[in-house]
Write a structure and sequence with these properties.
This protein is mostly helical and 232 residues long. Helix content is 76%, strand content 4%.
Amino acid sequence: MDTNGPPCQVCLRIPDRTIPFFCLNCARNVLYEPRIKRTKALLEKEALAKEVDKIATHANDVVASNAIKALLLDNTGSLGDCLEVEEAKSETAQSKARATTILEEARNVRDQIGKMRGNIMRMRSEHTKRASALEPARDFLKLEVDKTMVALQEDISSTQGSWDRLHERAREARIFLCREAAALYRLEQRKKRKGVQGRDTYLIGGVPIIDLRDLNSKITALPSSRIRLSAY
């Protein structure tokens, strides 16, 4: 490839013999000049062949021999051009083979990308269908949870009310039993008079009840030895 040529209009790369072709347009641009040279060589060969036939037919042998030698000498440049054309043809074939390989690999990559896109679209569609199918079940479950919570709250409120009523009845029963027991044992309370030292006294059946505070004070006043004997 000519390093002084214009850049490719497709890949924008400058032609160079040291790098491989990057696209088909690069290979096509390189083939133009060898094709023109080959066409010129073919035209020159055809013209030379006509001149040789003319000389061989209408001239004598010496003139014909000299003319043929001169033509052969002039044709040396055309033979060199033919060699360049053959070299260009070989490079073109190699470039076509590489371009075909690149195109095949690109086609395979595009096919794989298309398959992956198809799988992604299919998975998205299935996900959308599953989400749509689960939406009614989710709504129904939410309604059931709400109903269950309402029923549970009602049960808790009812149980709490029953417990409060039972507790109130038990309290009233205890009060009633205590009053009945106090009346049965003739529990009485005698309050101290105003201005007189002392405490209120309680009697059961007319017998005064010992005040535990007085009993404790009397026990602490006893010797420690008596307390140990009383313990035994």
